[in-house]
């Protein structure tokens, strides 16, 4: 067993806290009652029938602080090895240092599935399945997709590790509705999903999205779309998100470059949980990331999301992220641009900001990192929001809250996140990597 694996096992034994189940443990078929429980969203979007029920609550960690501590430990361990010279190509980024030093990475692509951290670390994607090579960038028919296309790959019932034969731009006519246990791996080629519909992760589990340019996504819909080999159904108008996560669990979005979409770049709603959003480069967008459906949708109290090692870059305005209800660990990200605010929320989310670098804009009225959305201070003063070890530049300030915050975060802070002085090194390669066969990625 490797040192990283041993470390995780020890932490799990000590914490005794992770309740997570394999994404394969799904009970029963999706019932009429489940459809009715999703009243708000289902008024506008159709369900995907013919799939077993995904119990996202089974993916919730009993002790989210313990999971946060595991992220911090992995960062500390990776940077410690780097300082000792054990990793000649190490950056201190524990995800990247897990696989990028291997010059034969293309022969060991599935190694990536063992490198996740945070709440989405158990997402295995298509690790246990065969490779599927996308050879055709076309999207000819959303009901009867052509073999060799990305749409044909993602709807299959079996686990698949999806790769691309060559550089390509894929313009989707309708949402790309994914089936469970899929990895989309863009390493080694230059793949853009752009100028049409984009990715929908709805009522599924175990998804890894890595190494894609996703941009200029547009609303589509009022059309039939296939979701599996045995089912297709009517889809109403989609919002135009780059990545839409809806009622799903064990999802990891890593090393993607996302920009300029009609709605969000990554939105997770309606009971989604066990999510990690890492190493991405976000640019040129208004409402970047929405985590939580609505203030009244209390099922999102089980939402747990890790946001780590991302670069929030030029042309961004707000929602990095905007949170509701759940638990959100924001660690070692680089915030170089915002126009309104960086991190916002409502409905009593717990936000744990550690070791980030926040560079405020020149606008003297937009220096605050945080925003409580349409909530009086008499209400939000009890919410657990904290900043620990963050680097606040150019007048940036973080407004903490929660009288019991210290006790609430005691286990999360027992192993501090890596110093914010390391953020530049950790996030230097955020976004799509330039990977070529036969050399380190």
Automatic annotation (TrEMBL):
Keywords: Calcium, Lyase, Metal-binding, Signal
Pathway stated in the Swiss-Prot or TrEMBL entry: Glycan metabolism; pectin degradation; 2-dehydro-3-deoxy-D-gluconate from pectin: step 2/5
Cofactor: Ca(2+)
Upper classification of the organism: Eukaryota, Viridiplantae, Streptophyta, Embryophyta, Tracheophyta
GO molecular function: metal ion binding; pectate lyase activity
Secretion signal span: 1-23
This protein's record includes keyword Cell inner membrane: no
Domain Pectate lyase: 167-364
Cofactor note as given: Binds 1 Ca(2+) ion. Required for its activity.
Protein name: Pectate lyase
EC primary class: lyase
Family in the record: Belongs to the polysaccharide lyase 1 family.
Pfam family, one: Pectate_lyase_4
InterPro entries in alphabetical order: AmbAllergen, Pec_lyase, Pectin_lyas_fold, Pectin_lyase_fold/virulence, PEL
UniProt-listed PANTHER family: PECTATE LYASE 18-RELATED, PECTATE LYASE 20-RELATED
Reaction catalysis annotation: Eliminative cleavage of (1->4)-alpha-D-galacturonan to give oligosaccharides with 4-deoxy-alpha-D-galact-4-enuronosyl groups at their non-reducing ends
């Amino acid at each position: 067993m490797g040192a990283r694996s041993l470390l995780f096992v020890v932490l799990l034994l000590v914490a005794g806290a992770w309740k997570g189940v394999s994404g394969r443990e799904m009970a029963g078929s999706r019932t009429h009652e489940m459809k009715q429980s999703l009243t708000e969203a289902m008024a506008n979007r159709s369900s995907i029938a013919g799939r077993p029920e995904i119990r996202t609550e089974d993916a919730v960690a009993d002790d989210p602080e313990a999971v946060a501590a595991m992220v911090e430990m992995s960062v500390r361990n990776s940077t410690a090895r780097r300082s000792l010279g054990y990793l000649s190509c190490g950056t201190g980024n524990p995800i990247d240092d897990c696989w990028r030093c291997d010059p034969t990475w293309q022969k060991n692509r599935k190694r990536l599935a063992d490198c996740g951290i945070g709440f989405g670390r158990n997402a295995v994607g298509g690790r246990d399945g065969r490779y599927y090579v996308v050879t055709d960038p076309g999207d000819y028919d959303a009901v009867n997709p052509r073999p060799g296309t990305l749409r044909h790959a993602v709807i299959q019932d079996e686990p698949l590790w999806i790769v691309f034969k060559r550089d390509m731009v894929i313009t989707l006519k309708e949402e790309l509705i994914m089936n469970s246990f899929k990895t989309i791996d863009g390493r080694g080629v230059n793949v853009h999903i752009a100028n049409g519909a984009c990715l929908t992760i709805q009522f599924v589990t175990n998804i890894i999205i890595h190494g894609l340019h996703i941009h200029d996504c547009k609303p589509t819909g009022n059309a039939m779309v296939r979701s599996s080999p045995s089912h297709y159904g009517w889809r109403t108008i989609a919002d135009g998100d780059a990545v839409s996560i809806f009622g799903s669990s064990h999802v990891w979005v890593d090393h993607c470059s996302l920009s300029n979409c009609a709605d969000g770049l990554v939105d997770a709603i309606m009971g989604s949980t066990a999510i990690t959003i890492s190493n991405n480069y976000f640019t040129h967008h208004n409402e970047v990331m929405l985590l939580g459906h609505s203030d009244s949708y209390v099922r999102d109290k089980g939402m747990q999301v890790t946001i780590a090692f991302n670069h929030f870059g030029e042309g961004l305005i707000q929602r990095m992220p905007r949170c509701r209800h759940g638990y959100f660990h924001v660690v070692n990200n680089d915030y170089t641009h915002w126009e309104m605010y960086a991190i916002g929320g409502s409905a009593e989310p717990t936000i744990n900001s550690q070791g980030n670098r926040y560079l405020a804009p020149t606008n003297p009225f937009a220096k605050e990192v945080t925003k409580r959305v349409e909530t009086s201070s008499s209400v939000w003063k009890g919410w657990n929001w904290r900043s620990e070890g963050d680097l606040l530049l150019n007048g940036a300030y973080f407004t903490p809250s929660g009288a019991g915050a210290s006790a609430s975060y005691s286990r999360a802070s027992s192993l501090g996140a890596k110093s914010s002085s390391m953020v530049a090194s950790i996030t230097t390669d955020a976004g799509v990597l330039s990977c070529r066969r036969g050399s380190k990625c």
